[in-house]
Amino acid sequence: MCNTPLHAFLAALPKAEHHMHLEGSLEPELLFELAAKNRITLPLSSDAAFASPASLRARYEAFQNLDDFLGYYYIGMSVLVDAADFEALAYAYFAKAASQGVRHAEVFFDPQAHTDRGVELATIVGSVRKAQDRAEADFGLSSELIMCLLRHLPLSSALETFKHANDAGYFKDGTLAAIGMDSSEKPFPPPLWKDLFAAAEGLGIRRTIHAGEEGPPLYVTQSLDVLHAQRIDHGVRALTEGDDALVARLVASKTLLTMCPISNVKLNCIPSIAAFPLRRLIETGVRFSINSDDPAYFGGYILENYCALQDVFDLSVREWETIAKGSIAGSWCSEERKAQLFLEIDDVVHAYVMENEEQ
Ligand code: ADE
Ligand code: ZN
After folding, report:
1. Helix or strand or coil: residue 149?
2. CB 117: neighbour CB atoms within 10 A?
3. N or C: which end of the chain has fewer CB within 10 A?
4. pLDDT of 61-116, one tens digit each?
5. Average confidence (pLDDT) over 187-213
6. Ligand nearest to the CA of 22
7. How far is the CA of 357 from the centre of ligand 1 (A)?
8. Rounded distance, CA 105 to CA 183, Å?
């Protein structure tokens, strides 16, 4: 818990999360439990961090960069094998998110990292769907699933996975809300994925991409120009280093940046939370949301990210209201759901203001 006077308000504030990798919510304890159940050997002989959940957690405190983290992330997810594993993982995230005031979540998964190990796409999406339905029933939490393709694999693999998902009807029937693109960034500039994004655009499928995390602001520009991406995941370097024209373009196009402050610090993309470009985001009017990225690896779910910012930037209730509403406005849910969530935000803000005026 943070020490700011707004902690209870931030916890209660209805939130949307748009940047959370399901595999990145695999806590070390569950990782070890599933490894034992599925008889997966963790690479303890080459890396002492795999001795226990505690030693693994300690290693997570020392990521050097994105690729250093990704090495652990891909080993970790190799313990996910059957439908029950994926459902347990997704439901645990939704339960935690709901406990922190998340009312709508759009979550990522990395199919290629599982299908390459023999797990069927249908197994993954079917079990995540079950968790989504349970979360809706148990917490009233709405959610969408975004299929991310991996940048470190060839375009042909991404195209094949996309075709498989499309042929199965997952975009048409709403099982999948969009495609995304993640994994190692710098060696894989956005134009490499032109054919994939053009195919998705041709079919009217939504598109988002990780860009401007470790890669330069140019990657954000290319994502808009070449890929016609409708959303940018991270984009932090567009704000810390990008010129006014790029920022003005993001504002004018209302492109949502799904930002992840604790992740950015943990992966050394920025030196500290104080370096997170929150003021520039607010002052210029860029549409953005605050997210956890890989909460089990970076030591913070969405509320810890809100609190980390509040500790440093001391925003007002009205500024948080604007951020929360911006995140709802940028969500891929129905207009009806958005209207409902705007009202929920109004209620929480109103209650806070009334209570504090009375004092
Ligand atoms: N996959 C999971 N987390 C990621 C991140 N922060 N950047 C790129 N790919 C990822
Ligand atoms: Zn991410």
Report:
1. strand
2. 12
3. C
4. 999 999 999 999 999 999 999 999 999 999 999 999 999 999 999 999 999 999 99
5. 98
6. 1
7. 43
8. 21
Q: How far is the CA of 297 from the centre of ligand 2 (A)?
A: 12
> Catalytic: 23?
no
Phi and psi at residue 17, in whole multiples of 5°? -115, 130
Is the pTM value of this prediction over 0.85?
Answer: yes
For residue 257, count other CB atoms closer than 10 A to its CB: 26
**Residue from 144, 213, 214, 321 carrying the catalytic annotation:** 213
Query: Can you tell me whether residue 260 is helix, strand or coil?
Result: coil
Check residue 358 and give its pLDDT.
Answer: 62
pLDDT for position 2: 74
User: From the alpha carbon of 151, which atom of ligand 1 is closest?
Assistant: 9
Backbone φ and ψ for 20, nearest 5 degrees, come out as: -150, 115
**Of the bound ligands, which one is closest to the alpha carbon of residue 265?**
1
Question: Which one of 21, 68, 193 would you pick to mutate in the ligand 1 pocket, going by the greatest count of ligand atoms within 8 A of its CB?
Answer: 21
The pLDDT assigned to 4 comes to 85
Q: Which residues contact 248 (CB under 8 A, 6 or more apart)?
A: 284
